Give the backbone structure.
Amino acid sequence: MASRIGCTLFVLVLIHCVQVFVEGYPFWERSVGRRPNNISQKKGDVKLFSVQGCDGPRSLDYAEAMAECKLRYGATIASYMHLYQAWRKGYQKCAPSWLNMGTVGYPMQRRSRRCGNRYGIVSLGFRDVREKYDVFCYPDDESVYFVEACNGAMTFDEAEAECQRQGNSIATYDQLEEEWEDGYQYCKPGWLADERVGYPAHDQSDECGDEPGVVDLGVHDRSERYGVFCYRSDDD
């Protein structure tokens, strides 16, 4: 069994290194980084973004990192190619962060002693999935996605600000309905524009209700707490 696992890891490393060589990526085996304070600012049309866990910097193992991207930001964990493309557009983040396939890295536009004195994509390679880092996320194709804060719920003003902080807007009922027509389902009430609360359902269940469609729970007091449906426009 140990031999099979070792062989599998060797093949994954070999594939990754061949990809790096063929694509001409800047690549280094090991370095260290400085932890960020919050979500990084994006440059130009860079879609990739860096996220910390609710417990602060370097608090996410690999499984938690994937969940953080999906459940709080409607995104997937970024690939090495996503990070490379962001680096090509001027993106820099001195913070070792999870990428897909269990690798860790970060992009540098200029050398810095506190960031390992490296330039390009600094890779720490494959890591133990139990180790703790931040994570690079990349938006999914859905225009509407559900977001929860670290405490699980937000007032309307907090929800609106959270969507704006991600460079997006709080979704309208019509935008959520359009996404529902494309198959989107998330059976958890969330804020919509105009202080409405609702969620999109396709399956009949105790969680989703008896009728498919966008469940409109009406206008609620702004001080009540829910998650939020954010809207990501096509030109983001």
